[in-house]
């Protein structure tokens, strides 16, 4: 077994604890679920997972080490992610009608939620640096390919995160269904969604490396 059972018994609880800690990915899935319904919230969680796998592959190949070593590259990607989140917030504020119900908003499909989640996650270099700092602690070069161990551990971590984020996004999405006949409240929650995205952008912009 490339990753021994005793290692997984330590890694899985630690990964689950991290996945249950409210963070940027969870907030994004919450915002998407509130904005466009349960399917969008779940799709966003899958998009976060896809972005996470990209980071895992990058870390396994050593690209994340470059981000950690070159602050300029880190900052460029971080601010691109901040700009994208601000753009999503502006779209929520400017939308002419409620976007919270599953049918609300033109083109507000699960595919768009998935795509936006991938972009937001990939443009958050904090994820790359975190993966690079966390996963190697459980990789044992003496047991064979470090690359395969990294991918396996990253898969376990992503699966747990996806389950948690899908639950958050799906539950938030039920709010949209409840508000379907409450247009005033729907508009208020639409603004709240924009504030969530702005808050997430501010968190990424001002958190220390």
Which features does this protein show?
single chain; 209 residues; mainly alpha; 9 helices
User: What's the domain count?
Assistant: 1
Q: Which structural class is indicated by helix and strand composition?
A: mainly alpha
Number of helices: 9
Shape descriptor? globular
Number of strands: 0
The percent of residues in helical segments reads over 70%
Over all CA atoms, what is the radius of gyration? 18 Å
Strand fraction equals: under 5%
Give the low-confidence spans.
98-107
Alpha carbon gap, first and last residue: 35 Å
- H/E series, N to C? HHHHHHHHH
Query: What does the largest sheet look like?
Result: none
Mean pLDDT: 77
Descriptive report:
It contains 9 helices and no strands. It has 209 residues and is mainly alpha-helical. Mean pLDDT is 77; it is low at 98-107. The radius of gyration is 18 Å and the shape is globular. It has one domain (5-206). Helix content is 78%, strand content 0%. Helix 5 packs antiparallel against helix 6.
């Amino acid at each position: 077994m490339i990753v021994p059972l005793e290692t997984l018994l330590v890694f899985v609880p630690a990964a689950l604890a991290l996945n249950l800690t409210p963070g940027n990915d969870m907030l994004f899935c919450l915002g998407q679920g509130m904005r466009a319904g349960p399917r969008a919230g779940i799709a966003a969680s899958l998009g976060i997972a896809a972005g996470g796998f990209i980071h895992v592959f990058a870390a396994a190949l050593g690209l994340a080490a470059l981000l950690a070593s070159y602050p300029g590259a880190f900052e460029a990607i971080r601010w691109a992610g901040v700009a994208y989140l601000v753009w999503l917030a502006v779209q929520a504020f400017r939308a002419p009608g409620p976007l919270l119900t599953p049918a609300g908003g033109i083109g507000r499909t699960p595919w768009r939620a998935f795509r936006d989640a991938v972009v937001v996650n990939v443009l958050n270099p904090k994820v790359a640096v975190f993966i690079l700092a966390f996963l190697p602690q459980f990789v044992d070069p003496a047991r064979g390919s470090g690359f395969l161990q990294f991918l396996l551990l990253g898969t376990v971590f992503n699966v747990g995160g996806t389950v948690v984020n899908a639950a958050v996004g799906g539950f938030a999405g039920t709010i949209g269904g409840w508000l379907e006949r409450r247009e005033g409240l729907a508009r208020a929650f639409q603004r709240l969604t924009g504030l969530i995205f702005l808050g997430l952008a501010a968190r990424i912009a001002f958190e220390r490396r």
